[in-house]
Amino acid sequence: MINKLKDMFKRVYKCEAEKVFFAPGRVNLIGEHTDYNGGNVFPCAITFGTYALIKKRTDKKIRFYSENFEELGIMEINIDDMKYNKEHDWANYPKGVIWVFENNGMKIDSGFDILFYGNIPNGAGLSSSASIEVVTGVVLKDLYNFDLSMIDIVKYSQKAENEYVGVNCGIMDQFAIGMGKKDKAILLDTNTLKYQYSSIKLDGASIVISNTNKRRGLADSKYNERRSECETALKDLQSELKINALCEINEDVFEKNRHLIKNEVCARRAKHAIYENQRTLKAVKALENKDIKLFGELMNKSHISLRDDYEVTGIELDTLVEIAWKMPGVIGSRMTGAGFGGCTVSIVKDEFVDDFIKNVGEEYKNKIGYEAIFYVAQIGDGARKL
Ligand code: GLA
């Protein structure tokens, strides 16, 4: 793979790549739409990801090329001109990271040629954008010897997404991608950024990611809408409760104070975030106690809450999950990521995985009219130089 990419670099830039970097994608097992509400999430890095090959330049040009968008060719941009430009399309993600680095006083005085190649299915909700952001951060740190921790890079990448790309996302994706570890999921408290690794030993079961193949159109504006609905609910609760984030309260406190939230839709959004946060903690405990069955039940409840209260699923995700629930060997299944299309994550007993893929695939195609794609997920390490 790496040799193929090096040949590609030579073909595109007519010179040899000096260094190779990689950042994974991520799949979230449970804890959805809690990360901008101060709650817990439980994602892991996967072995699909984004490769970046670079060669430093002596002038002030940065040249960007992605093998995934070869029709857009090489884009040449001056270091001093990192402002957002719609025409730069995908390159706005790495540009955004460079912009954040520069705004934080980091001096990038000479440019580089960079080639990206990603094998995360695009638009599938497995964080291809956070992956390209974090890999860019790791490249910059290495090229210019910046004194930054991985968590700094994670924060800068999130900032690029929030302030440059304009998606008001939480920190989960960039964190999982930067800090992931092979065979481990990360329980991250997004309020304090305290985290712990949890071994994923599923005792004869696998994590299956199913892609609805529905592109996440309009997802970004809907995402920002959910976020502001949660903020409205929080403001209403703050009229009586001393809290800074929704997930600081548990289910009981929420039920006792729900009446403070004036808008019924906002109340349901808050309910999801608060219950989902508690479910995440229960799910991690269940895993520690080797109670995979309970873990699966909590995944199913998470989906129902995302479907009914948070309303971020849609017919494709619901169909895929509801078919999965009926299949033998399925321990749990839910949508993963932002929603509105993208992927589901299921835990399936190993001996049933082949049948699962065949039967869920057939029924989905009959109902929705096009195919889903399935991947048995491998949990890999976080972003790094190769
Ligand atoms: C997207 C965002 C994350 C998180 C999830 C939902 O992936 O980038 O920050 O909010 O949606 O859990």
Automatic annotation (TrEMBL):
<keyword id="KW-0119">Carbohydrate metabolism</keyword>
<dbReference type="InterPro" id="IPR000705">
    <property type="entry name" value="Galactokinase"/>
</dbReference>
<keyword id="KW-0067">ATP-binding</keyword>
<feature type="binding site">
    <location>
        <position position="161"/>
    </location>
    <ligand>
        <name>Mg(2+)</name>
    </ligand>
</feature>
<dbReference type="InterPro" id="IPR014721">
    <property type="entry name" value="Ribsml_uS5_D2-typ_fold_subgr"/>
</dbReference>
<dbReference type="GO" id="GO:0000287">
    <property type="term" value="F:magnesium ion binding"/>
</dbReference>
<keyword id="KW-0808">Transferase</keyword>
<keyword id="KW-0460">Magnesium</keyword>
<dbReference type="InterPro" id="IPR013750">
    <property type="entry name" value="GHMP_kinase_C_dom"/>
</dbReference>
<dbReference type="InterPro" id="IPR019539">
    <property type="entry name" value="GalKase_N"/>
</dbReference>
<dbReference type="Pfam" id="PF00288">
    <property type="entry name" value="GHMP_kinases_N"/>
</dbReference>
<keyword id="KW-0299">Galactose metabolism</keyword>
<dbReference type="InterPro" id="IPR036554">
    <property type="entry name" value="GHMP_kinase_C_sf"/>
</dbReference>
<keyword id="KW-0547">Nucleotide-binding</keyword>
<comment type="pathway">
    <text>Carbohydrate metabolism; galactose metabolism.</text>
</comment>
<dbReference type="Pfam" id="PF08544">
    <property type="entry name" value="GHMP_kinases_C"/>
</dbReference>
<dbReference type="Pfam" id="PF10509">
    <property type="entry name" value="GalKase_gal_bdg"/>
</dbReference>
<feature type="domain" description="GHMP kinase N-terminal">
    <location>
        <begin position="92"/>
        <end position="181"/>
    </location>
</feature>
<dbReference type="GO" id="GO:0005829">
    <property type="term" value="C:cytosol"/>
</dbReference>
<keyword id="KW-0479">Metal-binding</keyword>
<feature type="binding site">
    <location>
        <position position="66"/>
    </location>
    <ligand>
        <name>ATP</name>
    </ligand>
</feature>
<comment type="function">
    <text>Catalyzes the transfer of the gamma-phosphate of ATP to D-galactose to form alpha-D-galactose-1-phosphate (Gal-1-P).</text>
</comment>
<dbReference type="InterPro" id="IPR006204">
    <property type="entry name" value="GHMP_kinase_N_dom"/>
</dbReference>
<feature type="active site" description="Proton acceptor">
    <location>
        <position position="173"/>
    </location>
</feature>
<feature type="binding site">
    <location>
        <begin position="32"/>
        <end position="35"/>
    </location>
    <ligand>
        <name>substrate</name>
    </ligand>
</feature>
<dbReference type="InterPro" id="IPR020568">
    <property type="entry name" value="Ribosomal_Su5_D2-typ_SF"/>
</dbReference>
<feature type="binding site">
    <location>
        <begin position="123"/>
        <end position="129"/>
    </location>
    <ligand>
        <name>ATP</name>
    </ligand>
</feature>
<protein>
    <recommendedName>
        <fullName>Galactokinase</fullName>
        <ecNumber>2.7.1.6</ecNumber>
    </recommendedName>
</protein>
<dbReference type="GO" id="GO:0006012">
    <property type="term" value="P:galactose metabolic process"/>
</dbReference>
<feature type="binding site">
    <location>
        <position position="223"/>
    </location>
    <ligand>
        <name>substrate</name>
    </ligand>
</feature>
<feature type="binding site">
    <location>
        <position position="129"/>
    </location>
    <ligand>
        <name>Mg(2+)</name>
    </ligand>
</feature>
<dbReference type="InterPro" id="IPR006206">
    <property type="entry name" value="Mevalonate/galactokinase"/>
</dbReference>
<dbReference type="InterPro" id="IPR006203">
    <property type="entry name" value="GHMP_knse_ATP-bd_CS"/>
</dbReference>
<keyword id="KW-0963">Cytoplasm</keyword>
<feature type="domain" description="GHMP kinase C-terminal">
    <location>
        <begin position="283"/>
        <end position="358"/>
    </location>
</feature>
<dbReference type="GO" id="GO:0005524">
    <property type="term" value="F:ATP binding"/>
</dbReference>
<dbReference type="GO" id="GO:0004335">
    <property type="term" value="F:galactokinase activity"/>
</dbReference>
<keyword id="KW-0418">Kinase</keyword>
<dbReference type="InterPro" id="IPR019741">
    <property type="entry name" value="Galactokinase_CS"/>
</dbReference>
<feature type="domain" description="Galactokinase N-terminal">
    <location>
        <begin position="9"/>
        <end position="56"/>
    </location>
</feature>
<dbReference type="InterPro" id="IPR022963">
    <property type="entry name" value="Galactokinase_bac"/>
</dbReference>
<comment type="similarity">
    <text>Belongs to the GHMP kinase family. GalK subfamily.</text>
</comment>
